[in-house]
Amino acid sequence: MGGREEEEGGEEYLFKIVLIGESAVGKSNLLSRFARNEFDNNSKATIGVEFQTQVVEIDGKEIKAQIWDTAGQERFRAVTSAYYRGAVGALIVYDITRRSSFDSIKRWLDELSTHCDTAVARMVVGNKCDLENIRDVSVEEGKSLAEEEDLFFMETSALESTNVQTAFEVVIREIYNNVCRKAL
Ligand code: GDP
Ligand code: MG
Fold first, then answer.
1. What is the rounded average pLDDT for all residues in the chain?
2. Helices (H), 44-116
3. What is the spatial distance between Cα 44 and Cα 49, in angstroms, rounded to a whole number?
4. Is there an atom of ligand 1 within 6 Å of 158 CB?
5. Which atom of ligand 1 is nearest to the CA of 22?
6. Which of 26, 44, 79, 159, by CA, is between 20 and 30 Å from 36?
7. Does residue 33 line the site of ligand 1, with CB under 6 A?
């Protein structure tokens, strides 16, 4: 599902992007901020909805980003291969106020690479940057992890809407560039 299909009058782009990371880091809120500009204080697992499709424009082309959110199964480290199947982008999220969620990023990257090939556009996202006063992971640590692993990195706040749009758009643009390179 990283495809480009010829339609009459143009191409269609549909990119599957997955959200992964420990429970309660803010994955669902990043998605609702991006897709609906909403924030929800109740941390309830998404019920019934597997993904949301958001249309973005890049280079004058309409791109459908199909963004997948977990329904709480990450709590049991039981994200299925169906969740990852066909993904061409991933946001691997931790909570800057909870070090254990940062420490597990490598495990999530491993899991991602067992299910998807290496061409997946990946960004490490340090969420909840509005909570500076109780920060537990420095910006530098986030950056250097991302550099080590050759990933994009950004700190976000789903609450204050900081960098959320940008984070998704950087990943979408990278996927778009990958598809274009492949087509050459
Ligand atoms: P998920 O389990 O990773 O999907 O996390 P949720 O999106 O359900 O969020 C877990 C909790 O963190 C909820 O109580 C949210 O209100 C809170 N939360 C999510 N994003 C932010 C953020 O950017 N800043 C703050 N302060 N809280 C957040
Ligand atoms: Mg969730």
1. 90
2. 81-84, 99-103, 105-115
3. 13
4. yes
5. 3
6. 79
7. no
Regarding the beta carbon of 128 and ligand 1, being less than 6 Å apart is answered yes
CA distance 16 to 86: 7
Cut 0.90: pTM above it? yes
Q: Which amino acid would we find at residue 133? A: N
Mind listing the pLDDT tens digit for each residue in 101-137? 999 999 999 999 999 987 899 999 999 999 999 999 9
Which atom of ligand 1 lies closest to the CA of 25? 3
Residue 17's closest CA among 159, 152, 155?
A: 152
* CA of 93, closest atom in ligand 1: 3
Ligand 1 centre to CA of 29 (Å) is: 6
Confidence (pLDDT) at 12: 83
Question: What are the tens digits of pLDDT across the range 37-73?
Answer: 889 877 665 555 589 999 999 989 999 999 999 988 8
ipTM of the shown complex? 0.99
| Tokens linked to 167 | 């984070």
Q: What is the dihedral of CA 18, 114, 79, 49, to 10 degrees?
A: 30
